[in-house]
Amino acid sequence: MAILVFAAVFIYSKLNNNANLSNFRQLVSALSLAQVYLTLGLVLVLMLLNWFLEALKWKFLIKKVEGISVWKSIESVFCGLTLAVFTPNRIGEYGGRVFFLSPRRRILGVVAMSVGAVGQMVITNMLGACAILWFVIRFLELNILLDYALAVLVLFFCAFFFVFYFNIELIGRLLVRVKFLRKFKRFFGLLARYSTRDLTVVFAYCLARFAVFTSQYCLIISMLIPEMHLFEMSMMVFILFFIQSALPSLDFLDVGVRTLTATYFFGFITDQELAIMAATACIWLVNLIIPAILGSVFVFKLNFFGSNS
Fold first, then answer.
1. For the stretch 209-218, what's the b/e string if a residue is b when 16 or more beta carbons lie within 10 angstroms of its beta carbon?
2. Which residue from 1, 27, 114, 167 has the least number of CB within 10 angstroms?
3. pTM score, two decimals?
4. Predicted confidence band at 25 (pLDDT cuts at 50, 70, 90)?
5. Helices 106-135, 230-246: inter-axial angle, 10-degree rounding
């Protein structure tokens, strides 16, 4: 809550800064309606592509448990997004998806979904760590020995997550050693059913999704600040994703935290603070709020006590 209050105060101060408003008005006045419509249209198409890829990934993961159609996978993904918006750390997304499965397979569905979540986390952490290394070397000007030490640390960090993901069945082995979790042994056993090839396919889906929502940010920011270099922009976006994934959040409220984080880091490469705030808020609206509204249609199809047709 303290973070949200601080973010709200920060945003209010930026919006009431006359220099910020003047710079932003100049940026907006230089845009053509055709350019705005084209960019926003592409961002919306990428949003649909992003969640379609997630639906394909979910269908692939859950086939070890229960076969579902592509459309049913799409329904469950969007339903999960609706419930995720109002729950801490998107925990409701699990319920929104698994209640589209038959009752006996819902716990297995949670385990299957966690494999995809881990894959997305691994990519976010690996690319985010590399981006932070670039940021430190580029802007903080530390001692060269510290730069080398950080580079080695990042290398081990990335290697750990990569090896961890492709040996995900070890999680199940570790969990069943915990006494009160042993009764769930057969559920954790599902992790061992994902082969290296399966995990590679899931990893490819995760990487494709990462590329899609990075492209969304780059499209919006390039429209508002065309002089910004694509590489620097991408690195800052990677850092933004990394920090977002580490912070506890509530999708419906965390636009302030996202905006605060983005404004701070992008402040090293641009003084157009309101443009960055506008881009962040736009992506939040397109990627989370609009899909959550669309998903509300599918919430009525949830069957809590039996299988869905």
1. bbebbbbbbb
2. 1
3. 0.85
4. low
5. 130
